[in-house]
Description:
Largest sheet: none
Helix content: over 70%
Order of helices and strands: HHHHHHHHHH
Mean pLDDT: 89
Shape: globular
Radius of gyration: 17 Å
Low-confidence stretches: none
Amino acid sequence: MTDLLLFLFEFLGTVAFAVSGAVTGLSKRMDIFGILVLAVVVAVGGGLIRDLILGVTPPAVFRNPSYALLAACTAVIFCIPYVRSVLAKHRRSSDFLLLLMDTVGLASFTVVGIQAAYAVSADFSPFLLVFVGVITGVGGGVLRDVFAGEMPGIFVRQFYASAAIIGALLCVMLWSFAGEIPAMAVGMIVIILLRFLAEKYHWGLYRPEK
């Protein structure tokens, strides 16, 4: 049961981030190679950085490329002319889809990153566990924005990395007495709620004025 839920978390995160990468590539008018690269980078980038931090070599994406292939296949679907035309006709729906996928990917990969750190060692400090979880969640998005020639969203987007930090903290705090799956579920739900509340009520961090 635990393995199945972990697979679902990773599957959701991979598909969600692949969609966000593909939609970004389409909006930048990239060719199909650029769209595929962007989708794969977003989907596996956070996990790649996570494994390098944890000393897991070679990183999981190279030992099991199935998630990279899943991301590429997801991106191909969004390159189909019919799908592109539907997205173009329903701009508001496509914007919501991008928000939803980016949020689900962030939430899924943040808690999966914490689980991966625990799998390496249960003696890691809470700081490392939270850091690894957050970097797994936001790492792919940072690479996507850099590749797309934009300012990384975690520096300017309303309550993005902050939501991942709060969710990761709750996940780590609950892990020892609530158990692995409940802690991951709570962390994921909190991140999703915070992201949508921030979008609805325009929450943001303080920005110093000139």
